[in-house]
Amino acid sequence: MFGQPHHVIDVGTSEVDPAMLNELLSDITPRFRPQDYSLLTHNCNHFSNELVQLLTGESVPDYIISQAQIIFNTPFGESIMPMVMAMEGLTGRATASGLMQQAPAAAAAAAAARTAAAAHTAGTPAAAAAAAGVAAAEAAAAEAAQRAASVGGA
Q1: Which letter, b or e, does each residue of 128-150 get, where b requires 16 or more Cβ atoms within 10 Å of its Cβ?
Q2: pTM beyond 0.85
Q3: One digit per residue, pLDDT tens: the chain, 154 residues?
């Protein structure tokens, strides 16, 4: 269906029968709910690593586990980090070295400033529209987080 894999990593063998596998999956399922997904810190590679550890006692290689962080440590990755964080519902400014949280209002103001700068330097309506879309997503995430914090009493 998807073609041949580019690379296969041998992580060992397991004597776990199907019934035990289902029990193991039931045990880890609560830790891997869709609402807990994070591209950086809690993704399919983390799930695979936990399952491999349970089945074989081995780990998935670190370069697989840290794949998202490696990508976000590139200039392109750093440029899309705010959009990814906004899509994940996080507010604040993200960097490759970690997340630096800002107040939601400050995040919205920073997004507006980036939009204005991008529109000014890009010089094309399409680039300005794309920058405005990213800023709008960041601002919406900031507003949603602020509303959630006020409802939750935080």
Answers
A1: beebbebbebbbebbeebbeeee
A2: no
A3: 678 888 889 999 999 999 999 999 999 999 999 888 888 888 999 999 999 999 999 999 999 999 888 998 999 989 998 888 888 775 444 443 444 333 344 444 445 445 444 544 444 444 444 445 555 555 555 555 555 555 544 4
The per-residue DSSP string of 76-95 comes to HHHHHHHHHHHHTT--SEEE
Nearest-angstrom CA–CA distance, 90 and 75: 21
* Nearest in space to 86 (alpha carbons), one of 17, 149, 143, 152: 143
What is the distance of C-alpha 9 from the center of its chain? 24
- Rounded to whole angstroms, the maximal C-alpha distance in the chain is 61
Of 122, 89, 120, the C-alpha closest to 107 is: 89
Residues 6+ apart with CB under 8 A from 87: 137, 141
